[in-house]
Backbone:
C-alpha cells in the first residue's frame, strides 16, 4: 500500500554525549528504531529527559556539537541523512523538515514585525522567483489558513502585540509556508492554556490534511495525543518501549509504564491516593481581598503626551481563602490570574484591601528553571528562607542555632521528598520536579498559613506533576496550610479543590462549590474552558 | 556532586586563549614579582660611564641616557603598571556595582539619577577627564588611580544595571521578595553572585584599558613621576633617543604589549567558555 511508505525511517539509532573523561557514557538514545508513515500524525510521548527531543533533533540535524551518533541510520524519503554533508542538510531544514518549538514567546524576533519574519522564511530559501507582492499574498493566504481573520493586520504587528496562541499560529504559518513534508512539533502546546491548546491541535490536524504534511508530535502529556495522533510511541530512558495506534494505547495499554503514564496523566486522586483536608467555612479566612483594582502604569511617553489610556487589568476583584482550604483559580490566559496574585503578594501597586492573617505567605511559581538562584546551593536557599522568616531564636549561641536550623532544614526537605544528600547541590543538578519541591520546602520552612501556587504543574511532566500534587495535598492535610492554586488544568481543580473561582478579563465571573460550578456552569467562560478540557482529556 | 562540576569541559578554543594569555601575562607578572625582591641593578642608579649601551650580557636590555639599566627599570615599571591598573579597576568595580545594581533594581528615578551621572561622565573622552582631574588635583599615583577609577566606573555600572534588570524579573528574586528578604540583602546575596560571570570579562578588559590610559597619561607627564618608572613614562623618555638607542623603546613597549595582549586573550577565553562558544 502506498500510504504506508515511510517518509522517515530511523534505524537502530544510538546516540550519546561522550566527554574526554568518559568516552563511553550511557547512551541518551538506545537502539531507537521506528518509521514515520507518509501523511500520519505520530505522537512521541515520554517524561522529561527520556530522549524524545534528542530524537527529533537527530532527524532535523540540529544535534548539539557534543552529541555523537554511535550507530544506526536515519533515512528521509530514501536519502541517508547521516551520510549527507552539513550544507545540503541545512538546505533541507524548513523546506523538507519544518519545526515548531515549545516556547512561542522567544521563537519570534521582538524587533521584527510578523510579516517581515514570515517573508524572511521565504527569502532565506532563495524563493526569488516571486515578487514581493506575490510573497505578501502567499503569507496572507497562509495566515488565513492558520485561522487569522485579520491577516493583513497581523503582518504589521510585533510579536509582543500577540497572545501566546497567536504567536504559535504565526510560527506554524512560518513552518507551513515552505510546505515541508515533515513537521516536527516539540511540545507545541505545553505553554498554552487549554482553550488555545485545543484550537492549535485542531489547526495542526487540519493542516496535515490540507497540505499533506506528516507530523511528529512530541509531548509529555499522553492525553494530548487523544483524538490528535494516529499512532503513539512511548519512550523511556532512551528506548521506545511501546508503539501502537492511539486508541489501543489509551484504552488498553499493554506496557506497565504506559499504564503508569496514563494514570499520572489523568491525575486521578483515587488512584494516586490524594486526600485534601476538610474545610471549616465558619472560621475566619486567612486571606481577605476586597475590591482589588490593578494595572500597569502609563509609560513616560504616554504620560508626557497627556493621554490617559486604560491599562487596568483587574477590576474590583474580591476573594477569601479559608484556613485549610485549597482554593482553585482557573481562567484562560490573559484573564488576570497572575496579576491578581502579584497584587495579593504585594508585588504590584493596587487599590483595594488585602488582609492576610499570617506572618508570611508562601509562593510557588510556574517556571522550575528560574525558581531557584543558580549561584547558590540548596542549603543556602533554605537558610535564606529561614533567616527571612525571622523565626530563628537569637538568644541561643551561634553554634547551637546552626545545628538546630540544619536539623529543621533537613526535616522539611525530607517532608518534601528530598534529603540530606541534596543540601550541597546547585539547582542545575536537580530536575524540574525536584526544584519545584525545593521551592515548596522554602515556603514550608517559613510556616506560612497560606501558599499561593501559580501554575506549578504546567512545565512539569505527568509523573512529576502527580508527585507534586501529592505533596501539596499532604501538606494541606498534615500542616493545615491553605493553598490558592492557579492552574489551567481543570481536572486537578475538580479533584482537590472544594471551592473554585473562575476569572475572565480581570473579573471574577463565577465562584462557588467546585462540583456546582463545573457541572452546571452559569457563565460563558466556564463552559468554554470545560469544552476545551473535555476535548483534550476526553472525559 | 563534585564529579559533575569537574566534568564541565572547556572548549579547545577557550583553552588556547587561556594558555596564550597566561603565558604573556605570566612574563610581566614574573618580572613584577622578582622586582619586589631583586633587580640586576638599582632602577634609579645612574652611571655616567655607561650611557646608551646596547643590549649585552652585562645589561641584557641595554642602558638609557643616564646609564640606568633598562632591564631593572622595566621590571620596576611593571610594578606601577600592575598596581595602578589593579587599584583603578578595583575602585571602578566597587563604584560601578554599588551604583549599578540599585539603579537596575529600583528603576525609575533612582535609575535615571544614577545613569544621568554615569552618562555625563561617559560624554567626555575618558583620557581628557582623567587628565583634567590629575591637572587639578596634582600629579601623583594616588590621583591617577582615583581619576581612572572614576572614569571607568560607568562602564561597570552599565554592566551591573543591565544584568540586574534581567535577573530581578526572574522567579527566584520574586520568591525572595515574597519571603520577606530585605532589598539590600537581595542585591548583595541574590543578585550580585549571578552578575560575576558578566563582570569578570569586563574586569579583565578594564585592566587592559586602564593600563593603556595610564601609559598615555605617563607619556604626557601626568602619571608616574620621575625617578619612578612606568611603561608609558619610559616610552615618553625614550622617544628622543629612538634613533640612537631603539632598545629604550622596544623593551618597555614589548612588556606593555605582552601585558595587554595577555589580558585580552584571557578575557576572550572567558567570553568563549562562559557563552559556550561565543556564538
Residues:
Amino acid at each position: 500500500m502506498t500510504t504506508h511508505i515511510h517518509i522517515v525511517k530511523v534505524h537502530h539509532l544510538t546516540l550519546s554525549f561522550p566527554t574526554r573523561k568518559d568516552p563511553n557514557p550511557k547512551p541518551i538514545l538506545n537502539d531507537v528504531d521506528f518509521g514515520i508513515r507518509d501523511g500520519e500524525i505520530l505522537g512521541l510521548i515520554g517524561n522529561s529527559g527520556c530522549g524524545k527531543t534528542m530524537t527529533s533533533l537527530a532527524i532535523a540535524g540540529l544535534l548539539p556539537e557534543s552529541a555523537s551518533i554511535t550507530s544506526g541510520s536515519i533515512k528521509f524519503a530514501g536519502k541517508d541523512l547521516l551520510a549527507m554533508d552539513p550544507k545540503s542538510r541545512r538546505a533541507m531544514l524548513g523546506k523538507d523538515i519544518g519545526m515548531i518549538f515549545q516556547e512561542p514567546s522567544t521563537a519570534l524576533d521582538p524587533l521584527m514585525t510578523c510579516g517581515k519574519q514570515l517573508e524572511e522564511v521565504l527569502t532565506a530559501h532563495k524563493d526569488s522567483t516571486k515578487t514581493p507582492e506575490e510573497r505578501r499574498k502567499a503569507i496572507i493566504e497562509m495566515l488565513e489558513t492558520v485561522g487569522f481573520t485579520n491577516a493583513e493586520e497581523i503582518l504589521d504587528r510585533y510579536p509582543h502585540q500577540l497572545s501566546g496562541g497567536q504567536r504559535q499560529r504565526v510560527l506554524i504559518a512560518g513552518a507551513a509556508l515552505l510546505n515541508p513534508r515533515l513537521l516536527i512539533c516539540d511540545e507545541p502546546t505545553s505553554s498554552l492554556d487549554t482553550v488555545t491548546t485545543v484550537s492549535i491541535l485542531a489547526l495542526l490536524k487540519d493542516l496535515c490534511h490540507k497540505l499533506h504534511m506528516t507530523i511528529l508530535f512530541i509531548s509529555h502529556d499522553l492525553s494530548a495525543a487523544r483524538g490528535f495522533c494516529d499512532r503513539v510511541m512511548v519512550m523511556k530512558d532512551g528506548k521506545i518501549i511501546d508503539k501502537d495506534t492511539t486508541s489501543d494505547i489509551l484504552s488498553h495499554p499493554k506496557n506497565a509504564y504506559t499504564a503508569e503514564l496514563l494514570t499520572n496523566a489523568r491525575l486521578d486522586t483515587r488512584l494516586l491516593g490524594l486526600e485534601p483536608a476538610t474545610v471549616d467555612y465558619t472560621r475566619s479566612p486567612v486571606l481577605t481581598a476586597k475590591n482589588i483594582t490593578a494595572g500597569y502604569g502609563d509609560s513616560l511617553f504616554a504620560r508626557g503626551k497627556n493621554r490617559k489610556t486604560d491599562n487596568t487589568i483587574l477590576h474590583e476583584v474580591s476573594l477569601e481563602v479559608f484556613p485549610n482550604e485549597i482554593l482553585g483559580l482557573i481562567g484562560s490566559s490573559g484573564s488576570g490570574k497572575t496579576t491578581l496574585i502579584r497584587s495579593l503578594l504585594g508585588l504590584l501597586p493596587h487599590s483595594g484591601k488585602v488582609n492576610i492573617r499570617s506572618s508570611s505567605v508562601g509562593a510557588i511559581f510556574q517556571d522550575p528553571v528560574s525558581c531557584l538562584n543558580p549561584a547558590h546551593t540548596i542549603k543556602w536557599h533554605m537558610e535564606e528562607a529561614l533567616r527571612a522568616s525571622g523565626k530563628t531564636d537569637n538568644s541561643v549561641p551561634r553554634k547551637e542555632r546552626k545545628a538546630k536550623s540544619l536539623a529543621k532544614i533537613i526535616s522539611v526537605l525530607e517532608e518534601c521528598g528530598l534529603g540530606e544528600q541534596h543540601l550541597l547541590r546547585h539547582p542545575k543538578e536537580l530536575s524540574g520536579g525536584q526544584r519545584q519541591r525545593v521551592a515548596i520546602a522554602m515556603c514550608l520552612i517559613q510556616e506560612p498559613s497560606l501558599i499561593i501556587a501559580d501554575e506549578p504543574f504546567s512545565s512539569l511532566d505527568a509523573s512529576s506533576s502527580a508527585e507534586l500534587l501529592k505533596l501539596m495535598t499532604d501538606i494541606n492535610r498534615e500542616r493545615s496550610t491553605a493553598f490558592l492554586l492557579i492552574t489551567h488544568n481543570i481536572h486537578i481543580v475538580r479533584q482537590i479543590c472544594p471551592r473554585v473561582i473562575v476569572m475572565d478579563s480581570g473579573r471574577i465571573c463565577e465562584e462557588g462549590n467546585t462540583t456546582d460550578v463545573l457541572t452546571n456552569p452559569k457563565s460563558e467562560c466556564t463552559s468554554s474552558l470545560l469544552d476545551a478540557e473535555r476535548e483534550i482529556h476526553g472525559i | 556532586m563534585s564529579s559533575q562540576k569537574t566534568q564541565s569541559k572547556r572548549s579547545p578554543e577557550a583553552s588556547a586563549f587561556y594558555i596564550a594569555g597566561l603565558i604573556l601575562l605570566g612574563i610581566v607578572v614574573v618580572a613584577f614579582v622578582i622586582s619586589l625582591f631583586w633587580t640586576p641593578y638599582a632602577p634609579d642608579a645612574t652611571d655616567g660611564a655607561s650611557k646608551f649601551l646596547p643590549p649585552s650580557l652585562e645589561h641584557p636590555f641595554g642602558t638609557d641616557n643616564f646609564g640606568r639599566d633598562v632591564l631593572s627599570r622595566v621590571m620596576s615599571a611593571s610594578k606601577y603598571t600592575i598596581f595602578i591598573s589593579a587599584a583603578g579597576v578595583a575602585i571602578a568595580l566597587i563604584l560601578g556595582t554599588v551604583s549599578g545594581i540599585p539603579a537596575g533594581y529600583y528603576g525609575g528615578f533612582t535609575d535615571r539619577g544614577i545613569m544621568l551621572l554615569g552618562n555625563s561622565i561617559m560624554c567626555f573622552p575618558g583620557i581628557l577627564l582623567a587628565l583634567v582631574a590629575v591637572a587639578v588635583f596634582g600629579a601623583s599615583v594616588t590621583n591617577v588611580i582615583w581619576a581612572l577609577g572614576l572614569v571607568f566606573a560607568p562602564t561597570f555600572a552599565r554592566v551591573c544595571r543591565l544584568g540586574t534588570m534581567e535577573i530581578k524579573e526572574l522567579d527566584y528574586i520574586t520568591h525572595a521578595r515574597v519571603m520577606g528578604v530585605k532589598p539590600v540583602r537581595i542585591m548583595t546575596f541574590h543578585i550580585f553572585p549571578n552578575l560575576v560571570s558578566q563582570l569578570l570579562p569586563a574586569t579583565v578588559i578594564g585592566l587592559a584599558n586602564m593600563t593603556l590610559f595610564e601609559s598615555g597619561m605617563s607619556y604626557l607627564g601626568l602619571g608616574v613621576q620621575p625617578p619612578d618608572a612606568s611603561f608609558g613614562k619610559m616610552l615618553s623618555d625614550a622617544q628622543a633617543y629612538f634613533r640612537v638607542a631603539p632598545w629604550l623603546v622596544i623593551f618597555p613597549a614589548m612588556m606593555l604589549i605582552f601585558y595587554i595582549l595577555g589580558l585580552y586573550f584571557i578575557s576572550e577565553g572567558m567570553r568563549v567558555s562562559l557563552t559556550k562558544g561565543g556564538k
